[in-house]
Amino acid sequence: GSTQVEAMRKGTKKAPMEPEWIGLGMQHPGVAVCNPFLFEEHRKILRAVRKLKAQDGGPNSMNKYGKILYGAECRSWVQWLVDVLVQPVTRYYWPELRNLQRNAYAMTVEYEWNKQRSLATHYDSSDITLNVCLGGEFTGGNLVCYPRGKRVVLKQQVGRAFIHRGKLLHRAMPLKSGTRTNLVLWCKQVR
What we know:
The protein has helices at residues 2-10, 41-51, 72-93, and strands spanning 25-28, 31-34, 54-56, 66-69, 105-112, 119-122, 128-135, 138-140, 143-145, 152-154, 161-165, 170-172, 175-187. Helix content is 22%, strand content 34%. Strands 1, 2, 3, 4, 5, 7, 8, 11 and 13 form a nine-stranded antiparallel beta sheet that branches. The longest helix is centred in the middle third of the chain and has 22 residues, at 72-93. By secondary structure, it is of the alpha+beta class. The termini are far apart. Strand 1 (25-28) and strand 2 form a beta hairpin.
C-alpha cells in the first residue's frame, strides 16, 4: 500500500519490474490503466502542482489551458513518477522502449465545459505518455483511443492514470459539465 510508495519515494525500496503492485492492467490494447493512481497519490500531486512554479497559458500547441511545470521541486517528483511508475510499466508492456529519459515534459491540462471542453484527435510528442486525472467535478470528457484502428472509450475519473505510446491516436471527448485537471508527462526514450 502507501508504505510501499513512501519507501520507494525515500529510495529505500526500488519499484518492482512488474506493474501488478499498483493494480495496473492492460485494459485495452495499447493502453495501461491504473486506478486508483498510486494509492491516492493523485491528491498529493494535485496539492503540490497548485504550489509549484508553473508557466500559465497553453502547455502545448493543442491545449489552451493548463500549466507547464518546471523548477527543481517539479523535476524531483517528475523523475520519481518516471522511475516508480512509467519506466516499470513501459518495460513490462513495451519492452522495446527499455530506457526513458527521467526529465519528462510535464504539464497540467485544464478542461472546462464553457472553455476548452475537448481535444481533437492527435498523437503526442512523446514515446510514452502518462495521463492522470488529478481532480475536478465533471461529467463526460472520456479518453478515446484508436489502437489498431478500433475505437476504445476509456472513462476519465479522478485518480485514474492512463499510460500509452505517444504514437497512439487518441482524443478527449467533450465535457458535459464541470472542470477537470489532468497531469500529463511526455516521456522520451534515451537515444
